[in-house]
Write a structure and sequence with these properties.
alpha+beta, five-stranded mixed sheet, two-stranded antiparallel ribbon, 49% helix
């Protein structure tokens, strides 16, 4: 290629442009975004397309992306250019949480945690999950409608507690009481800017501070017990793994970092999975053919259709509706758009999952979408790239075991009731009636 033709080709390449900016006052955008992100992003997409910029309190200028090709580019861009969205959950989880870490520190932490949630390590968790499911459902009422959200929360919390600490004890009972209200309150406070002071012990932030202080006390006791245990070097639980881990310079994780990371695992490791399970029961009770096929398969060792159903629940009812990044470099080019430093990017998971080009008739609940095909680039319930949920495989396995166990021991009744509406818990969205279900023992 000659120099002249190169110049001509470059001249024909359009200059990057800014995504269209939503023409509404910042406060109005913020109120709409807090009140209902799903409704707001969907309405704006109809007017502005699959990429547009909003300006909202707390996050400032934020580019919403719902194009699969551009989403892939967002997820694969170097962490030197795109970091985690600011602010993020590290405000509640602490500076030692994986959410707070960037670049090499983040890569090291993921490399440390990932093996405990993949491959052979997961086999030891399957029995724990089945045991916790059987324990929880032993008290379920027969022939009487009940909410599935809280039972699923208890199952997933107990499972992750046993995976993290390797054993039970009085301290874990304290955490069972402490973690659920902390998660709910922390999720709700993410909707509003973090204040500079807590405004007293009865304010939401004062209560969060008290929860955190009690949590740190319990974790300190558990760390002391673990370090003093004669089998500490042989223990395979996540607490022991973190305490034995070292950085490249040979130093170990500080106690505060261990505490922050454990809180991250406990909070993120149970709420979203439990919420997805509640949505799963809400969905299958309204689709008799799906339920019948699931019940039949549960009596076998197969899980192909159950896996397809889980994927379709996550597509049609994603509990987290966005995955965010923050521009660290002077600018980043995403497709034809140039986004300057300081802006945020948000991949809209609900818009991706509701795209008829990727999922024909997206309003239809249809596990058949995934029986013969793997999820494509438009299926992103766990986010993507280096910040894809580290516990995705664990969560999938957990949902599979819980559903199989329930289906093996109970006949689930179908319903003609209207679909349960979305209810925002701050970070996650759950069924408004908490996944109502009626069962009878087999």
């Amino acid at each position: 290629m000659t120099e002249a033709s190169t110049i001509d080709r470059e001249a024909d390449t359009p200059e990057p442009t800014a995504p269209p900016l939503v023409a509404l006052p910042k406060l109005a955008q913020g109120i709409a975004f807090v009140a209902s992100r799903r409704w707001t992003t969907s309405r704006l997409a109809k007017k502005y397309g699959k990429v547009y910029t909003i300006n909202i309190p707390k996050f400032g200028y934020t580019v919403v992306v719902a194009d699969p090709d551009l989403t892939r580019q967002v997820f694969t861009t170097s962490t030197e250019i795109l970091g985690n969205i600011q602010p993020n959950l590290s405000q509640q989880l602490g500076p030692g949480s994986v959410f707070a870490l960037e670049r090499n520190e983040h890569r090291h932490r993921r490399k440390l945690l990932a093996p405990k949630f993949h491959g052979k390590a997961m086999i030891q968790y399957e029995q724990i999950i089945e045991e916790e499911t059987l324990r929880e459902c032993s008290s379920w009422p027969e022939g009487q409608q009940f909410q599935t959200m809280e039972p699923m929360m208890r199952i997933t919390l107990n499972a992750i507690l046993r995976a993290v600490f390797g054993a039970d004890g009085a301290e874990l009972n304290v955490l069972r009481e402490l973690i659920p209200p902390w998660v709910v309150l922390a999720s709700l406070t993410t909707r509003v800017p973090q204040p500079k002071r807590v405004y007293g012990r009865f304010s939401p932030w004062g209560r969060l501070k008290a929860y955190r202080a009690r949590y740190d006390e319990v974790i300190a006791l558990l760390i002391d017990k673990a370090l003093a245990a004669p089998d500490f070097e042989d223990r395979t639980d996540i607490l022991a793994l973190l305490l034995r881990s070292t950085y490249d310079d040979g130093t170990t994780m500080s106690r505060s970092d261990v505490s922050d990371e454990l809180l991250t695992l406990l909070a993120a490791g149970h709420e979203t999975t439990a919420t997805t399970l509640a949505w799963a029961f809400e969905r299958i009770t309204r689709h008799p053919q799906v339920l019948s096929r699931l019940a039949e398969e549960a009596q076998t060792e197969s899980n192909e259709y159950r896996q397809a159903t889980i994927l379709e629940v996550q597509r049609s009812r994603p509990v987290i509706d966005f995955a965010g990044r923050h521009v660290l470099a002077p600018y980043v080019d995403i497709g034809p758009y140039r986004i300057p430093q300081g802006h945020s990017l948000v991949v809209s998971i609900n818009l991706m999952h509701d795209d008829p080009a990727a999922f024909p008739s997206p309003e239809r609940f249809d596990p058949e979408r995934f029986t013969d095909a793997k999820p494509g680039n438009s299926w992103v319930p766990y986010g993507g790239g280096t910040r894809r949920c580290v516990g995705a495989a664990f969560a999938n396995m957990e949902m599979d075991i819980v559903l199989r166990t329930v289906l093996r021991h109970f006949t689930i009744e179908t319903t003609t009731a209207p679909n349960e509406k979305w209810h925002s818990r701050g970070v996650a969205s759950c069924p408004k009636n908490n996944g109502l279900m009626t069962v009878r023992r087999r």
